[in-house]
Amino acid sequence: MRPALSVAMFIILSTAAWAQSMTQAMQNAPTRESSLAEYAGAWIGRSEGRVWFTVRLTYRDGQLTGTLQRARDVQFSSQGDVISIGGEQSTSSIEAAQMTGDGLLLSVNDPGAQSHDRYLMRLTSEATAEIDIVARSASPGMSRPKPWKLTKVAPNAVSRIH
User: Fold this and answer.
1) In 3-state terms, what secondary structure has residue 73?
2) What does the alpha-carbon distance between residue 143 and residue 75 come to, in Å, rounded to a whole number?
3) 72 and which of 34, 54, 68, 88 could share a cystine (Cβ 3.0–4.6 Å)?
4) Within a 10 A sphere around the Cβ of 82, how many other Cβ atoms?
5) CATH class of 36-161
6) 91: closest CA among 74, 57, 117, 68?
7) Confidence of residue 124 (pLDDT cuts 50, 70, 90)
8) 3-class DSSP assignment, residue 12
9) Residue ranges of the domains in the chain?
10) What would you measure as the largest C-alpha separation in the chain, in angstroms?
11) What angle do CA 116, 87, 113 make, to 5 degrees?
């Protein structure tokens, strides 16, 4: 009976040690981060059935470049939801795109307004993302918008929409 007990104890202790080492290895494993290339493409945001926000990103030589187009006049509710979208569009160049722990940080220059805005884009799937304003030139008292949902579309679909 003692040899069976010793073998059982050995198996239990070995299994516990293996499970502990696997748990530590999984904790130390790097979390999967989206690569810059995964963000490349045309992304649109819709509200009230129409496209009001477009991000076009091109991946080349390890960097993302592109443009961000949005309705110039957008009104938000006190909860941060889009409630009204003007017809005039503003197109800005993306000056920098870099990965952070939270997603892709886009630095955008709007030459007409002489301002720099920053957006954080996070992939939620291969074809969907959310984008949030991180820093923006805004009027005091303006409500903070909720992140907008984006859908990846074929590059030629964007030119047909606008």
Assistant:
1) coil
2) 9
3) 88
4) 19
5) mainly beta
6) 68
7) very high
8) helix
9) 1-30, 36-161
10) 86
11) 20
